[in-house]
From TrEMBL:
It comes from the Eukaryota. Residues 280-451 form the MOSC domain. Keywords: Membrane, Transmembrane, Transmembrane helix. GO terms for molecular function: catalytic activity; molybdenum ion binding; pyridoxal phosphate binding. The keyword Transmembrane helix applies. PANTHER family: MOLYBDOPTERIN COFACTOR SULFURASE MOSC, MOSC DOMAIN PROTEIN (AFU_ORTHOLOGUE AFUA_7G05900). It comes from Verticillium alfalfae (strain VaMs.102 / ATCC MYA-4576 / FGSC 10136) (Verticillium wilt of alfalfa). This is MOSC domain-containing protein. The chain crosses the membrane at residues 26-45.
Length: 461
């Protein structure tokens, strides 16, 4: 049989030998060349579906500062709260929270309305509560007897801290904004990936678009402008009563726009709703607030807890922070835990608690007009600041325990911790203008002129 087996030809043997003699460079260089060509294309034009934010960016501008631009990058350093003799305190940062208890948006400038900063606390999430469990698919009839919508915050659902809010306003040619915004949108995003290969692809797409540390997200869109009657009917929105603390207001439920996955992510077992405050159903503020007879209008709020604005002094925060026990889960107190609108620096610790009325003057800002406020009362804190705003993880006891121990300073709120103060806007032309036409402006860099001082005693709701 050996005689009939063909022997390899010299030519084929030589070709195989030559192929085996090629080193790794023969294959490596073409591969590197191909990757060098493809990677920039993939980075610039990632093969992933366009998002709602991508579409809005064609015609709208996103409001807010990025992390690198933030005026709070070094707020926990002693120099950030230093007091200079003879110098006035100044406005260090501005923050709005369009959706209550979700991520905030830091600004350099904001319009001030009778309800507070523009776009602040327009929306709140709520759950349908009753003496018994309410299915997420409950219909209108099932919601009647004993059922009530009740607002939710990070106090119950800490993961709300991870729900991001992006605000888009229409782009205009000259860089200015209309006196009243129309056509603005909110894009809400929360961490979510589906099961299986679909979830893997979502994660890969997120990293291609937003970087290695990005995670897959689900997003949905909300109109900022209050819908017309026709739009309400078309989109399936409903006017319903919602309870916020002891108040019950009628607001517009946009729950049909909220993905079911968000309820799962937050851990809400009941039906989840998302309410938009009705401009005709604002809550009037009394208690420690000034009266219409004094300032020309009665202060109102949307879904703020009690007053239109909240101010935090970095000097006070750093002094309190120095007394709070630290551990592996709490390195320092981020000012964002306290969800303030106005963050000031350059004032002695707790000096703001003696302010009765203040005026922000242009200072180092680009504005040419002032903005005045009545300081209504101290801010009585709940347990919400226990939640880390960067992770949505709740600390077991701090800073709530230290607030109650160290900052039990207001005779009107015994055994409660206080930090920061509440404000109501003042307008010079309040008596001669319609309330909806009242406005002023704030910008980072403005200086603070304390107009009057006095004692504060908190009045409970």
């Amino acid at each position: 049989m050996e005689a009939y087996r063909p022997s390899p030809s010299a030519g084929s043997t030589a070709g195989l030998s030559a192929l085996l003699d090629f080193d790794a460079t023969f294959f490596f260089l073409p591969l590197v060349t191909l990757l060098g060509f493809l990677l920039p294309i993939i980075y610039l034009f990632p093969p992933v579906p366009a998002t709602k934010a991508d579409a809005l960016q064609q015609t709208h501008d996103r409001l807010g500062l990025g992390r690198a631009e933030s005026n709070l990058r070094t707020h926990n350093r002693p120099a950030a709260a230093a007091v200079t003799p003879g110098a006035s305190a100044k406005l260090q940062a501005l923050t709005i929270y369009p959706v209550k208890s979700c991520r905030g948006i830091e600004l350099t400038r904001s319009r001030v309305l009778p309800t507070g900063l523009e776009f602040d606390r327009l929306f709140t999430f709520a759950q349908l509560k009753s003496p018994f469990s309410v299915s997420s698919t409950a219909n209108a009839a099932e919601k009647e007897d004993g059922h009530v919508w009740e607002f939710i915050t990070q106090r119950q659902f800490a993961r709300l801290a991870n729900v991001k809010v992006d605000l888009y306003v229409p782009r205009v040619e000259d860089g200015t904004r209309a006196d009243k915004d129309t056509g603005s949108w909110i894009v809400m995003r929360f961490p979510w990936r589906d099961l299986g290969i679909r979830g893997v692809l979502q994660t890969i797409a997120a990293k291609l678009v937003r970087g290695w540390y990005a995670e897959a997200e689900r997003e949905f869109l909300l109109p900022v402008e209050f819908p017309t009657k026709a739009e309400i009917e078309q989109r399936g929105y409903e006017f319903e009563k919602v309870k916020i603390w002891k108040d019950v207001v009628t607001a517009l439920n946009l729950g049909v726009d909220v993905p079911e996955e968000l309820r799962s992510y937050l851990g809400v077992s009941n039906k989840l709703g998302l309410f938009r405050i009705d401009p005709l159903g604002l809550r009037q503020v009394f208690r420690c607030a000034p009266r219409k007879e004094e300032i020309g209008y009665q202060p109102t709020v949307g879904f703020q807890d009690a007053y239109p604005l909240h101010l935090m002094n970095l000097g006070s925060l750093q002094d309190f922070d120095s007394q709070v026990p630290k551990d592996g889960d709490l390195k320092y107190l981020d000012v964002r835990r306290f969800r303030s609108n106005l963050i000031v620096t350059g004032a002695p610790a707790y000096d703001e608690e003696s302010w009765q009325s203040i005026r922000f003057t242009p200072g180092a800002s680009t504005l040419t007009s002032d903005a005045s406020f009545q300081v209504s009362c101290r801010t009585v804190r709940c347990k919400l600041p226990n939640v880390d705003p960067a992770t949505g993880i709740r600390h077991r006891v701090e800073p709530d325990r230290s607030l109650r121990k160290i900052r039990d300073v207001d005779p009107g709120a015994p055994k409660m911790g206080c930090l920061g103060v509440q404000l109501c806007p003042l307008f010079e032309d309040a008596e001669s203008c319609e309330t909806e036409d009242l406005r002023s402006w704030l910008e980072v860099g403005m200086t603070i002129d304390v107009q009057s001082r006095g004692e504060h005693v908190y009045i409970k709701q």
